Amino acid sequence: MKKILVFVLTGWLAGCTLQRDPAGETTAGITPAAAVDRLLEGNNRYMRYEPIHPDESRSRRKELTKGQHPYAVVVTCSDSRVSPELVFDQGLGDLFVIRTAGNIMGDIELGSIEYAVQHLNVPLIMVVGHEGCGAIGAYLKGEHASGHLKTIVDSIAAESEIKALQVKGDQILDHFVKANIQHGVREIIQSSPVIRERIASGSLTVMGACERLENGKVVPLNSN
Ligand SMILES: [Zn+2]
Asked: What is the pTM of this model?
């Protein structure tokens, strides 16, 4: 049974071209700081309505059949207004993206991030929340959630950063959105020894950011 499972898993990974980089080197070839600059420069183009839509060519697609070398992990919300390749004006093979409603951080998300760090040597992880997040809003309203949606709301409710907040008033959602981003950043660092090692060696940065819906600007919150 175990052998079958390993075979299926290996086959699935190969089918998704999620193989270990043969060289084992920093495949993205850029520093964490350069990766941040590249993302924020792309976001600036998006904000100005001047996207260049990089890495979407026929040759890029062909090149990527040999393997992927993304330079950043972006953890963000499933919300249709915050698609990272559009918001950061990036193309195929540039970003390793993890999306859930409310950019929740659980074992599956953390496993996906560790894959990108360990096997693709990605130098940057950015957790991007956004204004007006419906998942955080649902938690705040205390709406009855049923089915699997309840899992998301319960996950938000269990975050220590969310529990610690004592705010009221008009901007309350913004505070909770930011607390959720901070939770994501902390969870990534605290729960993953391999990620902490990379941070200590200077080859990885984990940071949070929040996107404004009105102008599309992604504002960094913090970094390690
Ligand atoms: Zn959202």
From this structure: 0.86
